[in-house]
Write a structure and sequence with these properties.
alpha+beta, 2 domains, five-stranded mixed beta sheet, two-stranded antiparallel sheet, 7 strands, elongated
Length: 182
């Protein structure tokens, strides 16, 4: 990877002997490995047994999970918030596992639409809830720094499964809970 980064730096006209760039290929390689570490993660390891029996069937919501990812089209960052809700069906996940599942998929080259659906599908696979809802709102540097250069745009995506898709009242409750600021 370091050799490829050196070639990129040369191709854009940089001097690899310049003081500030001497260790850049190594730093960029380490950075990219960290930013894409989701490829080395799997759902079972991420959950690490944190599935618990629960008789409850009321909606569980965790909002404002920070998301940092790289757009697969330009390899530029997009960042924002992920909101997750599910209705247990005898099992719940340890609360931190929702953030870890989000991180596992966000730390791959992504498009926001797929990221949203992958999170919902993973929660469904892990605990087979009555329903899952995931909403992500994010800013994309590929749109802010290049191309159309619109600084204040925000993309919102949702994935609704089970009761969240079948019952408008369930979907509305979830949306109200993630918008609630009190």
């Amino acid at each position: 990877m370091r050799d490829a980064i050196r070639k990129i730096l040369e191709a854009i006209g940089e001097d690899l002997e310049r003081e500030g760039l001497q260790n850049t290929p190594d730093r960029v390689a380490r950075s990219l490995k960290s930013l894409t570490r989701g490829y080395t993660m799997d759902l079972e390891t991420v959950i690490n047994g944190a599935i618990y029996e629960s008789p409850g069937d009321e909606m569980v919501v965790v909002k404002d999970i920070e998301v940092y990812s790289l757009c697969e089209h330009h390899m530029l960052p997009f960042y924002g918030k992920c909101h997750i809700g599910y209705i247990p069906n005898g099992k719940v996940l340890g609360v931190s596992k929702l953030a870890r599942i989000t991180e596992m998929f966000a730390r791959r080259l992504q498009i926001q639409e797929r990221l949203t659906e992958e999170i919902a599908a993973a929660i469904t696979e892990a605990i087979e809830p009555k329903g899952v809802g995931v909403v992500i709102s994010a800013k994309h540097l590929c749109m802010m720094m290049r191309g159309v250069e619109k600084q204040n745009s925000e993309m919102r995506t949702s994935a609704m499964m089970g009761a969240f898709r079948a019952r408008p009242a369930t979907r509305a409750e979830f949306m109200n809970l993630i918008l609630y600021t009190g």
